[in-house]
Design a protein that fits this description.
Helices cover about 80% and strands about 0% of the residues. The protein is mainly α. The longest helix is centred in the first third of the chain and has 28 residues, at about 1-30. It starts with a helix and ends in a 6-residue tail after the last helix. About 20% of the residues are buried. The model is unreliable at about 135-143 (pLDDT under 50).
């Protein structure tokens, strides 16, 4: 059962990381479109928008990979949770809208909260048996 639990923890980390890594690479391949979309949604323009997109794609890819590998998984989950909170408060501000737009943004906001919940779980439990944290910290003691 222990091996099955470790496998499930790995699959959970994989599922959580997939969206971050996908979105990070999308931002690389559609860099100008990503900047334009961000500018339209937030009103942030110029170099600030470009740098925000650069930082966000680095966070998504680097910490997403760290989460999959289970290397510094708790720290990666903390960074990604903070990122998601900033993201959903900025881009899914349903409380400023009415009608169908409000409903859609509320659903997107709640999905973001669900992702934060999964990341909090990783912060609490670590990477499990299928992660670099476990294999990196396991040292043989010579007697």
């Amino acid at each position: 059962m222990k091996a099955f639990g470790s496998l499930l923890m790995f699959l959970g980390r994989l599922c959580l990381s997939a969206a971050f890594i996908w979105d990070g690479f999308y931002k690389i391949f559609e860099f100008h479109t990503s900047i334009q979309n961000f500018q339209e949604l937030t009103g942030v323009t110029g170099d600030a928008a470009t740098w925000i997109i650069i930082v966000s794609l680095i966070v998504e890819i680097v910490f997403g990979i760290m989460l999959i590998l289970g290397w510094k998984a708790r720290f990666a989950a903390l960074v990604l949770a903070a990122y998601v909170i900033c993201y959903i408060v900025t881009l899914h501000a349903f409380w400023t809208m009415d009608g169908a737009d409000r409903d859609l943004e509320l659903v997107m906001f709640l999905k973001g909260i669900g992702i934060v919940g999964g990341l909090l779980y990783v912060m609490a439990c670590g990477s499990g048996g299928c992660g670099c944290d476990r294999s990196c910290s396991t040292k043989e003691v010579k007697q």
